[in-house]
Every structure is written in structure tokens, then in C-alpha cells.
Amino acid sequence: MEEREVCTAVPNAALAELGNFLRQCGSTLSPTEAVVHALKLWMDTQQKASEPPRGYQWKCLFLPHGSQVRMFYQGAWEYASVRGDELFFRGYRVSPHQMALEVGGKGRNAWRDLWVQRPADQQWRTATELRNEHRRRLAAKPNSPMEAMTAAAKCMSDTLKSALLLVEQANHQTARQFDRRLPKHRRFDDHMIDACMED
After folding, report:
1. Mind giving me the DSSP string for 10-63?
2. Of the segments 35-39, 102-106, 141-145, 162-166, which one has the largest average pLDDT value?
3. What pLDDT was estimated at residue 84?
């Protein structure tokens, strides 16, 4: 089956506007070349957007590809970087915990001792600060309809259990009061009154 060439005409007004823009920018591209280039760039962007992001997942904290991690020890900074889906330190793959141990030895806490700078960050921030920020965002995030329904169902279930316990307690109290008047629990005087009434 042969592929058919699809030709879509670009409106003349748009081509004229593009031509003027290219001249003002000093570009050497023709309007047709610019359109082809723009389409390829758009398709590339769409393809990348559909791919899952690359990066290192550190428990709840995601470090995108290109992130830098550092630790200060004995007057110097030691650096690691995220490449693809791995954290590399001194040329080999490590976890943040392994990096902290390698730099400072036992007793190191990676959350406390490591600093992170992701590609979009302007400054270095402690891993603990980033983790706490992530937790605050999750806490402030509104529940999805499914989460809200699950929470409501749990609340109703808990309420029903409490109500059943109260009913059971009330039944138990009533049964105890009734049991107190059964013959084995009655006073001797009550038996004599019953006997007199029967005569």
C-alpha cells in the first residue's frame, strides 16, 4: 500500500506574517523551511512530553535527570549527579544513604546532610526541606472524588460500629436488670410473698 502525500496549504496571511518575522529576526530560513522546522520541533516536543520523566526516585522525593546532590565534609563539598534514572557519585551508582556514608562515615543521615539542586531550582536546598515541602503539598492537596468517597464510607462504617456498640451495651444493661429478678437472684422475702399470694 503506497503512502499518499498530504499537502496542507498554509494561509497566505500566515506565510506573509512568518516571512516578515524571519526578516526582522535576520533568519536565513525561508517561510517553508521555518514551517517544516517548527513542525519537527513540535512533534519532538510532543513525543518527549508523552514519555515518562527520567530521574532518581528517592523515597517520596523525585530528583529529575540533571539534578545535583552535594555534601559538605571536612571543609569541602562532595558532588553527585542524577543521570537518567540513577544517582552517580565518584563514577558509580549509589543511593543517597550510600553517598552520605561514603563521604562522612557512619552516623550520617542523608536527609539531613545532603543538599539538592534540581534543574529548575535557583538555589541549593537541604533534602529535609524538600521532603517537608512535598509532605505539606500532599497534605494541602484536595482529595479526589474517590478518596473523598472512601473517607466518607470509612466515617460511616466507624459511626455504624459505634452505634452497634451502644445498642449492644444498652441490651446488656437491660438484660442485667431483668436477670436480677429471676428466681435464683430473688430475696427470700420475695419468695414468701409469692407463696402467700398463691394460698
Report:
1. PPHHHHHHHHHHHHHHT----HHHHHHHHHHHHHHHHHHHHSPPPEEEETTEEE
2. 102-106
3. 92
Q: In what order do the strands lie in the sheet with 125-126?
A: 92-94, 86-89, 76-83, 68-73, 114-117, 125-126
Beta strands in the chain (DSSP E): 55-58, 61-64, 68-73, 76-83, 86-89, 92-94, 114-117, 125-126
CB-facing half-sphere around the CA of 4: CA atoms within 13 A: 3
CB atoms closer than 10 angstroms to residue 72: 13
Instruction: Assess whether pLDDT exceeds 60 at residue 57.
Output: yes
Q: Is 80 helix (H, G, I), strand (E, B) or coil?
A: strand
pLDDT digits (tens, 9 = 90+) for 23-38: 888 888 888 888 888 8
Q: Give, in order, the Cα–Cα distances in Å from 15 to each of 22, 41, 175.
A: 10, 18, 92
Instruction: Judge if pTM exceeds 0.70.
Output: no
57 CB-near residues (< 8 Å, 6+ apart): 63, 85
Confidence of residue 194 (pLDDT cuts 50, 70, 90): low
d(CA 164, CA 41): 65
Contacts (Cβ under 8 Å, ≥6 apart) of 102: 89, 90, 94
